[in-house]
Amino acid sequence: MNFKLVNVGIADIGLASSPDILRTILGSCVGICLYDPGASLAGLSHIMLPSKSDRNANDRKYADSALPLLVEEMAKKGALKTRIVAKIVGGSTMFKMAENSMMGEIGRNNVKKVREVLDAIGIRIVAEDVGGDYGRTIDFYAEDGRLKIKSLGKTEKLL
Fold first, then answer.
1. What mean pLDDT comes out for the span 120-124?
2. Which of 29, 59, 72, 77 is 20–30 Å from 96 (CA)?
3. Residue 63 dihedral angles phi and psi, to the nearest 5°
4. Which of 15-29, 49-63, 67-81, 145-159 bottoms out in mean pLDDT, i.e. has the lowest?
């Protein structure tokens, strides 16, 4: 089967239709994988930070602005919000920091904000693999919403 591998960079979003695959690499960032089974359409947002504070900043960098944008882009391609489900991955603590350091909380804060935003826009989280102290590479299959997670020294996971 011929498919296109779409790499989604940091602070970006990507869309794919069956049989294509979305891929990104995560540490403290969070990958939000949205899937509409009726349209066989997948969307992936790679957010860096929880909330946008500068109105001139890149909307795709922040959970509170990237997720509504991704849903809007999916709707333009035929997705229905009522059918979209989410899988979230990442939010690791990648570096040892002082206990009260804000840097050490970025991953956890990202995950918390992603959950809040998805709840606010009415999208259900059906699976997640978050936290820890290791990076992840994810492949998100538009064909069926399958999510493959690879991490160094860990068993491959399928969500």
1. 97
2. 59
3. -60, -45
4. 49-63
Q: Alpha-carbon distance 82 to 28, whole Å? A: 29
DSSP 62: B
The band of 46, judged by pLDDT with boundaries at 50, 70 and 90, is very high
The residues assigned a catalytic role are 29
Q: What is the mean pLDDT of residues 3-16?
A: 96
**How far apart, in Å, do the first and last CA atoms of the chain sit?**
22
If 0-12 CB within 10 Å is exposed, 13-18 middle and 19+ buried, where does residue 12 land?
middle
pLDDT at 75 over 70: yes
Question: What's the predicted TM-score (pTM) here?
Answer: 0.91
pLDDT at residue 98, rounded to an integer: 45
Of residues 21, 6, 104, 109, the one with CA closest to residue 63: 109
CA–CA distance, 16 with 94 (Å, rounded to integer): 29
Residue with tokens 């946008």: 52
- Domain assignment of residue 148, given as a range: 5-158
Specify the pairing of strand 147-150 against strand 157-158.
Answer: antiparallel
How many domains does one find in the chain? 1
CATH number of the domain to which 14 belongs: 3.30.1330.200
